[in-house]
Amino acid sequence: MGQCVTKCKNPSSSLGSKSGDKDPGSKSHHKKGGGGGCKEEPGPVCRKAPGDLLANGTKTMEVTAETPVIPTLSADPLKEDLVANSEEFSIVRIEELFDHYKDEHDDAILEEGMERFCNDLCVDPAEFRVLLLAWKFQAATMCKFTRKEFVEGCKAIKADSLEGICSRFPCMLLEAQAEDKFKDLYRFTFQFGLDSEEGQRSLHRDIAIALWRLVFTQDTPAILECWLDFLTENPSGVKGISRDTWNMFLNFTQVIGPDLSNYSEDEAWPSLFDTFVEWEVERRKKEEERRCTQLPSAETEESGGSHQKGVATD
After folding, report:
1. What is 220-314's CATH superfamily?
2. Where exactly are the transmembrane stretches of this chain (predicted)?
3. Nearest CA-CA partner of 147 in 73, 95, 100, 187
4. Would 4-49+71-180 and 220-314 be classified into the same CATH topology?
5. Which of 14, 31, 87, 161 has the fewest CB atoms within 10 Å distance of its CB?
6. Cα separations (Å) of 55 from 62, 63, 74, 103, 229?
7. pLDDT tens digit string along 148-194?
8. H-helix or E-strand containing 5?
9. pLDDT digit string (tens) for 217-244?
10. Yes or no: is domain 4-49+71-180 CATH 1.10.238.10?
């Protein structure tokens, strides 16, 4: 994120920096970070406590013969909340990790901090895993994590370090393949793409195209590229994508076959879909006619070549 799942200057990527018109909130997506595995070091967020302290930070005490001695579970006061709540993470560590990337003047991780955060996670700010992380954190604004979003998000995935977050990516990728979870991610993506500060209610067309490519990273519908080509050529003059159109497109990919033969204008599809189907059917018809007209000439050339070859042989 940094220049991440965000308001951006280059709509060919879904992640970028803040920018755009007030309405419909022109955004674009730009900036690439590192890809690959996970870093070994989480950065300066961990400290060790003296070994003679109990989990709650107090010194060991004498016990009477009648009182059973309970072994110390942790010598690290940063794990105090871990022991108390029997969880797999420490709230203190999460807060420290957040503070490592937060803005100097705002209690939030903003563009510069997001970029460092993604680099330290070894993820490309423009990739699907960053969108998944924003989804799990329920981030309200692109290129920004508030303290609450970051802490609650890390609690949700049970991670309190860079290594911990990295290790959760495979589970998040698998989770997003479940139909109900993907539907939730898909609907989140629309809201995430809006410029909440500007009060946007629809996605700019170029932002929607980039986000459609991103959210369908793992399971790309057969009709997606045709749909995006239609929006790119924009014969209908569409400038923004409404929430209803965004949500209904997921239903469209699940119900309508790639040949579009079972599409009916009598059903309650958005009018933009009617225009798309007409445009795509006509495009395929022209493509087929062009292919058929080129085929005879190709066959004639091949036949003529064979004849000449035969004459030469005689």
Report:
1. Cullin, PONY binding domain (1.10.238.200)
2. none
3. 95
4. yes
5. 87
6. 16, 17, 5, 31, 59
7. 999 999 999 999 999 999 999 999 999 999 999 999 999 999 999 99
8. strand 4-5
9. 999 999 999 999 999 999 889 999 999 9
10. yes
